[in-house]
Structure formats: C-alpha cells, structure tokens
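Notes from the 1:1 (GR / supervisor)

We went over the backlog. Supervisor wanted to see one worked example end to end before approving the batch request, so GR pasted a single chain during the call. The sequence is below; no edits were made to it. Supervisor asked that the structure be written out right there so they could see what the output format looks like.
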Amino acid sequence: MPVTRDIIATYRGPRRVVRRLLEMGPREDRALVMLIAACVLVFVAQWPRLAREAHLTEQELNPLLGGALLAWVFLAPLLLYALALLSHGAARLIGGRGTAYGARLALFWAFLAASPLMLLRGLVAGFIGPGPGLQGVDLIWCGVFLWFWISGLREAEWSG
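Structure output shown during the call:
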C-alpha cells in the first residue's frame, strides 16, 4: 500500500497499519527511510516559521535553515533511535515480548504518520505566529503522535 494511504489509514486504526508493516518482516532500510522522510518533512515544516523569524529580526534566512537542517536531518534521527531503544527497554521491563526493530518501527511510523500535522504547525507558526492557534496545533500534534506511537508500540511489543 502506498505510504500516503497508510498514513490516512493510521488515523483510523494505527495498530492495523503497524501490524501490516511488521508482517512485512524486519527491514532496517524501510525503518530508516520512514525516519528520514519524517525528519525531512519536519525540516520543511520549519521553513515558514524560520522565514517569519528572519524577517522580523532582520537576520539572514540561510543560517537559520542550516541550523534546522542540522538539527532535524542529522541529529534528530540519532535521538529518535535512542528513544526507540529506551521505549523497547521500558516495554521489556513491563512484560513486552517484541523486538527492538518493532519498537523502532512503531516510533518512526508514528513520527511519519503525524508529520502532516507538523506541516500544518509550520504554516500556523509562519503565517499566524505564536498564540493560542499554534498552541492548539501543538497540542493536537502531540496527542496524535502519542496515540500513534503508543498504539504501534502495543502492537509491536504485546501482540503476535
């Protein structure tokens, strides 16, 4: 199934999508592509906010974009790998029987599936700026991401 259909299906039932992805077998390249795609989308989502910030503070945009690129495309994947390992360890402590790959897939897929909301967040941050609208989108993104991640982690660690 194409990624866009899987993302839409995740909003209806995240466990089913993660189950289908896990049934495809452990492929670290697939998980890495999901993670990098999500990080690139989050980087792109930063552009409107950074353009606004550069305009309002009369800074150059390129250094801001370079910093965001470094953070989201090079550093965030390392941190997300570590977070996936920690979540797998925590799941094992409370009875999880899954694999580290399953925990990575659950986290990386949740991050990718929630990325459309991060793109919306970028637009709100860039065109409206700080305020209740941005806080609302942040809250929605956080809730959806956690829902996807916890559901996927439950599927990866306790089903099967």
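Supervisor's comment: The CA atoms of residues 92 and 98 lie 8 Å apart.
Batch request approved.
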